Amino acid sequence: MTGRAMSTFSITLDGAPVTVSEGETLLQVARRQGIDIPTLCFLEQCQPATSCLVCLVKVKSGTTGKLVPSCATRVASDMVVESETVEVHAARRTALELLFSDHVGDCLSPCHRLCPLQLNIPVMLRAVDTGRLDEAVAIVKQALPLPAVLGRLCHRPCENGCRRGTWDQPAAIRDVERFVADRDLKSDRPFQPPTKPATGKRVVIVGSGPTGLAAAFFLLREGHGVTLLNRHERPGGSLVREVEEGRLPAEVLAAEISRLKALGAEFKTGAVLGEDLTLDALRRDFAAVLLTMGEHARTRATALGLEATAGGLKVEPDTGLTSLPNVFAAGSAVKPTRQIIRAMAEGRAAALAVNQLLRGLKIQRAEKPFSSMMGRLDRAELKLFLNLPSPAPRTPPALDILRGFTSAEATGESQRCLHCDCRAAGDCQLQHYAELYGADTTRYRSLRRTFEQHVQPGGIVFEPGKCILCGLCVQIAERAREQLGLTFIGRGFDVRIGVPFDQSLEEGLRQTGRECVAACPTGALAFKTD
Amino acid sequence: MPAADETNTASVALVPAAAAPETDLRFVDEAVERCGKTPDVVIPILQELQDHYGWLPEAALRRVVERTEITPAAITGVSTFYDMFRHQPVGQHLIRICRGTACHVSGAERVEDSLRRLLRIPATQDTDPERLFTIEQVACLGCCTLAPVVKLGQHTHGHVSVEKLPKIIRDYLDQTRAAHDPHHTERPLRRGGNGTVYVHVGLGSCCMAKGSDQLFLALQNGAAKAGANVVVKRVGCVGMCHRTPMVEVTVPGRQSQFYAGLGPAQARDLLQRHLRPRGLARQLSRLWTGALDLMLDDGAPDAVSRCAMDTRAPEVNAFLGQQVHIATDGFGRLDPLDLDEYLAHDGFVALRRCLNELTPEAIIKTVEGSGLRGRGGAGFPTGQKWRVVRQQPGDKKFVICNGDEGDPGAFMDRMLLESFPYRIIEGLAIAAVAAGAHDGVFYIRHEYPLAVRRTRTAIAEMEKRGWLGDTLLGADYPLRLTIKEGAGAFVCGEETALIASVEGRRGMPRLRPPFPAQSGLWGKPTLINNVETLALVPWIVRNGAEKFAAIGTATSKGTKVFALAGKIQRGGLIEVPMGTTIRQIVEEIGGGAAAGRRFKAVQIGGPSGGCVPARLADTPVDYESLREVGAIMGSGGLVVLDDADCMVDIARYFLQFTQDQSCGKCTFCRIGTKRMLEILDRLCAGKGQRQDLTELEHLAHQVSHGSLCGLGKTAPNPVLTTLRYYRDEYEAHLAGRCPAGRCRALIKYVVNDACTGCTLCAQHCPVNAIPLTPYQRHQINLDLCTRCDSCRQVCPHQAIDVK
């Protein structure tokens, strides 16, 4: 600009007049107004690629209008623009869903997705592998209410899904988790998960089995007071039986229950609902009642004034609410549940619903964590993951059931993890906006492309299946006058990013590797060590 | 070095048997010498390499990078974008199979299957193991009236059938052994004087595909021998492609006589019929040779009279009677390359007037007043476009003639360039003068070699006279014209992609605005007009805006050239006034569907257009009316469909085309069209699910609204119109039926009671699915049957049913 005064004028954005300067893009204007228009292929220092088209807005003309990419469309006077409408959102969502239909990669690893309590297993394993035990403890203890118990008794759905298992044997996830949990229990200052400020509200949980204990754990962390009623002397419900049968040392259960007490849980033992206490009394004294007394519940339903089904207490499926207000039920009290971790997951879901009630929010089930899924891999694809992990076979469990993994064993086993979760998970624009827009990653699912992974000598990991062809890396390399650089190869649906003459990425990006990885809006380019 | 036995079979297969000798890179240096070293010449260099080596060896590409300013990224990106460039060696002979619309509905797929079987080319590859033949699909060769079409080497064959293929290939191999000069029809020709008999031979690509070049040579030889005052004259397209090769003989003082369908063998008889030899001896000798001919070949002279056409015959009259020739003025009469003849037919009168009498403003006013709208498809007012470019500041401006006619089923622009190159040059020159541009570019698809050659020759001819270059027609107005050949990318018909291609980049469209008129080629204001639009301009300037505006409808003025093809009696190139109804075109000009068939729909506008059902045939061809029924004017491809055509298959065909031609830039087009195609594939395979139809419709709307450029925005049109008018056919496919009997997975071939056991079908079945059982009713083994249709075609008793 050579001294010429920038002219300003007004446009209409989502119904409100906005003053804009000539030359500004609609994206700039919208972002200034606090509207979060999603972008993937846009980077301020590059030319707009107008390729992803998730930044569409509607520019109206009369009763119609057209969708345009806001990143490259410049303002014009009297423009009428719509950003946050159902129609525009639907178009953005379709763009995201189409991108996912051609996205070869998992945001979250199968083990993580299969864990009913959503323990971020690969991150935990990498923390153990690199000696960051405190971090591993924090990850475990924020996700699992009784990690040392689960480390011994969990039926390991995670290991069923472990991709390493389709190659040789799955990583011994539970044993590593137990190692982490035991380490923490044995330490002088065991990890105390953070809690929210106290709400002053109290919840009574009837029954202290896995469901009740888990619910208590999550309610306490939400800042609510929790009282657990237990008809037997020892809390733990079905877990006590495990102790009696020798699969769970009593002191481990006791230690974990003491951690719950440290969080503020109150246990009242020997109290039987319907005998010593009435449900009405509980409803009067507590802000909410959660029934987790296991399969007994059904037989006592009528006495308590609750409706029952063939399996257990009748509850609303989405809320866990029984026929009485503010009375929830979960776990085997509703439907017999064999697996401890599932029972705990039920407890967590109930805790979430109770929390929503207490905070005056709409009660709704938590959605499963968002993740792209690439499904089963064949052996050739799987082999690509084996470049970095340890080739060792699965570490057998210690003969002495009381011992668990040594530090070296835990580290060694952690190194067997394939790192099949995405390196960009949590730092990925595609994942972020898909979650925000409720994109269904499987809507346009089709035949999957072959998974590819190229680990470059310089430490860059290139996974073309995750590339959305924004071309930012091509631009960055070109601008830096890389000798080889990157280019689009092919056309249409089969176009891909590559280095000319089949050279390696290392050769293509001699100076700009780091910049390209930073600019990549997905996990197509990432660093090995990240 | 690895031991020989360690070499696995996979790597052996990758080493081409024929490419053993090192690539000779001297040619690269020569090509660079000819084309230049700047980044923008990458496509011309690659074209030279492709022509020379038959593919692009990596060593050659690296050499280019060494010797020029072209970067490795650019050469890789560009050479993998365009269809014409190959990165794998080719076989000795290249066979191109046209997959245009007309060819598709006429069985191109069966032709390809059959070729693969004949030449032993595996399904996943394009070359046979001995590397003799490579087959390549071409979007459209633009010979739609001759569908299905294949091109062997330089020669195009029309009306190919599974039955004819073996002979075509044998003949081709024989021919290639004999020396062949493909440029023989480009040489300057002899001119006549008073009393000369003229024999006009149509030498458009279509005519030549039907052998008019051979006929032309035979006639020339015959005329030379006869020594009479006769000139065998090359003319452009004659329009009546369904009757090619066409010959018109004009004898002074007599009505001219047309002949259709003559072969080279009848050349001499034709000449004899019209020439009176001088002197008795010659007359006698004529009698004698005539008698000899009779003895050698019964009824040969008769063959000529059978080919004679009465131009007053109702069918000829129906075809020609409704046409108005503006863009095609002089069709069948003008020698495409005879500059003097063009001059004699008002050639360059308009341009001269623009240079000497009219101001640019007056020219633009005339074009505006004529109501001319772009003939490339969108119908933007031409005058307005010219004005915008005129108004842009700066001295450097460009005009471009868009000859990237990529729509399958369209060949108007090819024909105009082949037949009237001077007219297009004149139109472009007028546009340049009006817009204030001194540089013009012809962008012509490389699949149209004859159009490229004729345009090039015409430009050279003009330059030779000093009429182009530093001066224009001798006036002080420099105008430099160059030709850029496309390299096989439909998307380059889109203006911003075309510009990218001219600049030597991947042909990716970009967001508009800014429009090319504001910022186009090399960032300068650029006027891009379609070939046909430019062809109309000289007439408008000569005859005045009012005269042009008097033709047509309220919003669509003048004439429109259509390539009429498909399931119709008389296909060809026609020029009709805007407002003519589809019914008039199909039933009157085209003569309707073939006997026993029912006219079902017309596909108009190609992959961006739609299918207009027969019940809406009274829709006039006019930009607005066509849009209302869901189609578009498009560039002018008009493919007629009959009751044997499946509308789901048609939708799938077009989507396959656009999906294949998507540049891959934006999400909606790149992935959306692919997903739509997958749904259509499922439907045609009988594997559709209920929600597929709603998803298809949803995606069609999303792709149409969300895509960045016109290709993506219009790609769903064939799907949307067929869903609109033929939803019942989609439903039938969901139920596992193809009502038209077209989708292979949903049909079967069965023998009916009319079978006499003649074994003809069994003999012709390429996969031995019919046991040879003489005098017994034949049986078709449906597990072996590939639905190639051979049996039905050869059966003399209509004993094969498709169910």
Notable traits:
heterodimer, A: 530 residues, alpha/beta, five-stranded mixed beta sheet, five-stranded parallel beta sheet, 21 helices, 35% helix, globular, B: 803 residues, 20 strands
Produce the secondary structure layout.
The complex is a heterodimer of chains A (530) and B (803).
Chain A: E1 8-13, E2 16-21, H1 26-32, E3 56-61, E4 64-69, E5 80-82, H2 86-101, H3 110-114, H4 121-129, H5 133-143, H6 147-153, H7 157-161, H8 164-167, H9 173-186, E6 202-206, H10 210-221, E7 225-230, H11 238-244, H12 250-263, E8 266-269, H13 279-285, E9 288-291, H14 296-304, E10 327-329, H15 340-358, H16 379-384, H17 407-414, H18 429-436, E11 454-455, E12 460-462, H19 472-479, E13 487-489, E14 496-498, H20 505-508, H21 513-519, E15 525-527
Parallel strand pairs in A: 1-5, 6-7, 6-9, 7-8, 9-10
Antiparallel strand pairs in A: 1-2, 3-4, 3-5, 11-12, 12-15, 13-14
Chain B: H1 9-14, H2 26-35, H3 42-53, H4 58-67, H5 72-79, E1 93-98, H6 101-105, H7 108-119, E2 133-138, E3 150-152, E4 155-157, H8 165-177, E5 197-202, H9 205-209, H10 212-226, E6 230-235, E7 246-250, E8 257-260, H11 267-274, H12 280-296, H13 300-307, E9 308-309, H14 314-321, H15 339-344, H16 349-356, H17 360-370, H18 382-391, E10 398-403, H19 412-419, H20 421-435, E11 439-444, H21 449-464, E12 480-485, H22 495-502, E13 526-530, H23 531-543, H24 545-549, E14 559-566, E15 572-577, H25 582-589, E16 599-604, E17 610-613, H26 623-628, E18 637-642, H27 647-661, H28 667-684, H29 690-706, H30 710-714, H31 717-725, H32 727-734, E19 749-751, H33 760-764, H34 790-794, E20 800-802
Parallel strand pairs in B: 1-2, 5-6, 10-11, 10-13, 11-12, 14-18
Antiparallel strand pairs in B: 1-3, 3-4, 5-7, 7-8, 8-9, 14-15, 16-17, 16-18, 19-20
Helix pairs in contact in B: 2-3, 10-11, 16-20, 16-23, 17-18, 17-20, 19-21, 20-23, 27-28, 27-31, 28-29, 29-31
